[in-house]
Amino acid sequence: MNMLKYKIATCMAVLSIAPSWAQMDNVIDVEHVYKPEIVDANKVNVLPEVKDVPVKHYKVDYAKNILPVNSYSFTPVATDGEVQTTPAHKRFVTLGGGTEGNLLGRAAVGFDIDDKQSLDFGVGLSGNNADVAHYGGEGDDWTNRFYSTTASAKYKYRIGQASSLQIGASYESQVFNYQPEYMTGAWNDPSTDKQHNSIVGISAMLTPYSFGDLSVGAKVRYDMFSQKYVTNLADKYSEGVLDAGVTLGYRLNSSNWFDVCVDVTNASYSTDGVDGYTNLAVRPHYYWKGDNMDVKVGLYAGSLGIAPDISFAYHASPKFDVYADVIGGEGLRNTFSAISRQNPYWALYPGISSLDSEKLELKSQFNQLSARAGVKFCPMEGLDVDFNTGYELSKDRLEMAIGSGSHPNMYVPVFLADGNRFFVNLNAGYSYKDILTVRLVNQFNAWTIDDDNVLGTEDVLWRPVLDLDWSASVQVISGLRVGVGYRMQTFKEGEGMDYSRPTTSNLNANVSYTFQDMPLTVYVKGDNLLNSDYDRYFGYAAPGINVIGGVAISF
Fold first, then answer.
1. Which residue ranges form the domains of the chain, and what is each CATH number?
2. C-alpha to C-alpha distance for 168 and 154, rounded to whole angstroms
3. H-run or E-run covering 6
4. What gap in Å lies between CA 481 and CA 405, rounded to an integer?
5. Which of 79, 353, 400, 499 is the most exposed place for a label (fewest CB within 10 A)?
6. Contact (CB, 8 A) for 385 and 428
């Protein structure tokens, strides 16, 4: 995701309006209004002057639990190829369609009521209807349908220069079908062929407001998740999650300050198979900022346990940073909506979640320790490099397995287990003004899992071992851009398992043209151009070669 921000900062609609429904997990944020540069044809090959750009320094987070309302906006759970946009203009319409039933529609409108108040609204429809391979390559191809409808609204009232009160709401409807069974021959079971998920969220937030040296911030949010159809032997799932927090800060001087964050989360469930829970946490922090150094020393203490919260950054020069983190606390909240973002085809059912013998508590993941050290540097003009390595130790991490029993391949069972991860990241990017951007994101992961989980497995088969995400974009002439991307993920092969996730190998390309005399962009994008066989979601195959094209209009 981060890599694509470099592209979009130079062009409003290069990739932001070019989604595809194969496997690219790209979220694009437009950082400013794109202003096309009119270049005479005979000057296209004249290269502009490259300015010296310092490294973007590693930042130590301050009061990070107080987040903007829009940071809580829902990401469509099953459109993992969709490209989300934060429009450069407050009014835009994007339309697109293509092969494999690819469909895209987006619209947004926003306006200022006065110099302190603003309103923003957005709607969207996206999805696909593609013939894909069956589980394990067995049986005939089947038609995979997935459509997502979204709507959102946000009101913002500015308080002073740096604070604001924000109220937001969002809605998402997801309609999809499960792959049919081949082992039992139940190809058209009406009780399992379809699903409809609904996700609703409302929130309010006060960004940190200062009273002299004292500051206060607060948030409250309520999320509701529900399923319409019964999955396997379990009940229909519905969930309500209340999340609230307050942060108090006190600044001693320009270099030293304190804050303390108090968070509470309550989750409740309609099904008898899942217990609700309440998490309470207190997180005190001390911050020190020097001329070349930033330090945070803190602690997480709550219902989940106690963990450190320490960060350090040394800015050796404008082009070189050294940083390290030793943090912990609440990780991914294992809610129904969060699980759906990992894999919408999940299910809780006997044998995996132990619903036949005891209740499952979907408590949050607890990171006992997450340590990382790295360097960020700019070895030459236009080139930035970030290298880091680290180790994570977690309790109640969300895991997935291939199902067994009466419906072995329709649903992807989920369970919680303790585990750890060793990782190495090497990310690099090169930019030459508005002409060329290249981004290389490389990650190696070594996943382990304790074997005392409900499944008794020691293999993590759905998480990538090697994860490469490469992309490049070039402006051929003013208004015309061509991009190419490649994603590769490798996975561990399970010993004695019925199914191993195939290697992801996805090549995509796109072309877009923005007219200089009108707010119009046309685009076309091709995905999975290698026609590779891989999983879009664990146990669910991706479509083959597919193309989408369309237009975007800003007002």
1. 2-554 (2.40.170.20)
2. 4
3. helix 2-8
4. 51
5. 499
6. yes
Q: Identify the burial level of 474 via C-beta atoms within 10 angstroms of its C-beta, where 0-12 means exposed, 13-18 middle and 19 or more buried.
A: middle
Q: What residues contact residue 458 under an 8 Å CB cut-off, 6+ apart?
A: 448, 449, 451
- The span from the CA of 17 to the CA of 4, in Å, is 13
Q: Which of 7, 23, 4 is nearest to 530 (CA)?
A: 23
> Which has more confidence, 184 or 334?
334
Using an 8 Å Cβ cutoff, are 453 and 414 in contact? no
Tokens linked to 461: 């088969």
Q: Are 467 and 25 in contact (CB under 8 A)?
A: no
For 138, 203, 461, the CA distances from 122, given in Å and listed in that order, are: 41, 16, 37
Distance CA(369)–CA(420), nearest Å, equals 9
Residues paired with 148 in a beta bridge: 126, 174
Q: Mean pLDDT, to the nearest integer, of 289-313?
A: 95
pLDDT at residue number 526: 94
User: What type of residue is 494?
Assistant: G
DSSP 71: G
pTM of the model: 0.80
For the stretch 346-363, pLDDT in tens is 887 554 444 444 667 778
Q: What confidence tens digit (pLDDT) does each residue in 163-191 have?
A: 999 999 999 998 999 888 765 444 445 44
